[in-house]
Amino acid sequence: MNIIGSIIAGLLGTLAMTLLMIMAPRMGMPKMDIIGMLGTMFTASEGAARVLGTPAHFMMGVIFAIIYSLLWSLGIGSPTWLWGLIFGAVHGVVVMVMMPVVTKMLPRPPQIESGPLMVVGLLMGHLAFGLVVALTYAAFV
Predict the structure, then answer these.
(1) For the chain, what are the domain ranges?
(2) Which of 5, 32, 88, 137 is 20 to 30 A (C-alpha) from 46?
(3) How far apart, in whole angstroms, are the C-alpha atoms of residue 117 and residue 123?
(4) What integer pLDDT is reported at residue 127 of this predicted model?
(5) Which DSSP letter does residue 74 get?
(6) Do the beta carbons of residue 30 and residue 111 sit within 8 Å?
(7) Contact between residue 112 and residue 96 where contact means Cβ atoms under 8 Å apart
(8) CB atoms < 10 A from the CB of 131, how many?
């Protein structure tokens, strides 16, 4: 496993996902403010939540990229576009299941839109994350 490759892949994958989240409302998708939501784990102040949520979001991306890389190094798939999409899809489904539980722990739970467009947006973000992580990590191994 290449830890530097994992870290860089996680940062770039998270950047890709973040850009999709920013563009989502412009494409008719619901607003997906995961950065603001993560920040509310630390503070109820909206401005401070965004400041604290940004590094939390990127750290989580690095952690998940390390998990992906570890799985690949154990022989579970390989860092290819297909396995990136598979890991991203599984990751997205796990997030969908966990989100209602996690948001209940927040001091200021966000109003999260539900429905098919939110599911599509969430999956698109995680597919992009997985794809970018796989292709970036592949350049290091």
Answers:
(1) 3-138
(2) 88
(3) 10
(4) 98
(5) T
(6) no
(7) no
(8) 20
